[in-house]
Design brief:
CATH class: Mainly Beta
Order of helices and strands: EEEEEEEEEEEHH
Number of helices: 2
Helix content: under 10%
Distance between the termini: 42 Å
CATH architecture: Beta Complex
Structural class: mainly beta
Largest sheet: 7 strands, antiparallel
Radius of gyration: 16 Å
GO biological process, one term: endoplasmic reticulum membrane organization
Number of strands: 11
CATH topology: Metal Binding Protein, Guanine Nucleotide Exchange Factor, Chain A
Number of domains: 1
InterPro entries: STEEP-like (IPR029704), STEEP1_dom (IPR057965)
Protein name: STEEP1 domain-containing protein
Family: Belongs to the STEEP1 family.
Strand content: 25-35%
Organism: Aureobasidium pullulans (Black yeast)
Length: about 140
């Protein structure tokens, strides 16, 4: 592998649908203190700048209407990203109105997505036969 090539790590919904491809592993991502979700930066496709990180959501459907969540210190607007196969929420985005630099606008802030804890399996875990029922129980979905 040359110095410019990077390994792509892939992650799947608990139903096995591919949902994320990234040059970063989930273990290397920062954790959000509000709810322990993983912070996945998304590339700015409007610029041609080079970056050492790339990530893409695949096979997900983003809600067009936000849900208001109550937190200990107030409220926040979230847009859910659901698996296109089973409709389990695997991630969410926040509304632009919640950030100082975009406070006067609204809509999905598209430079980052927050991954729900326990909702994803790596391709390696799937190949190794990781216990899917244990993962389903972690996120509160009953197995059929």
């Amino acid at each position: 592998m040359s110095s410019t090539e990077q390994t792509i790590h892939t992650y799947h919904c608990i139903c096995t649908q591919l949902v994320i491809a990234s040059t970063s592993t989930l273990d290397s991502l920062k954790t959000r203190t509000a709810d322990s979700s993983l912070i996945l930066p998304l590339p700015d496709l409007s610029t041609t700048s080079t970056t050492t990180h790339y990530a893409s959501l695949a096979n997900t459907v983003a809600d067009t209407k936000p849900v208001i969540i109550r937190l200990e210190d107030g409220f926040e607007k979230r847009y859910a990203h659901k698996c296109s196969r089973c409709e389990v929420t695997v991630a969410y985005s926040l509304d632009r109105s919640q950030f100082e630099d975009t406070k006067t606008s609204s809509g999905v802030k598209q430079d980052v997505v927050y991954l729900i804890p326990g909702g994803l399996l790596s391709t390696e875990d799937m190949k190794a036969g990781k216990d899917m029922d244990a993962e389903i129980t972690k996120v509160g979905v009953k197995a059929a």
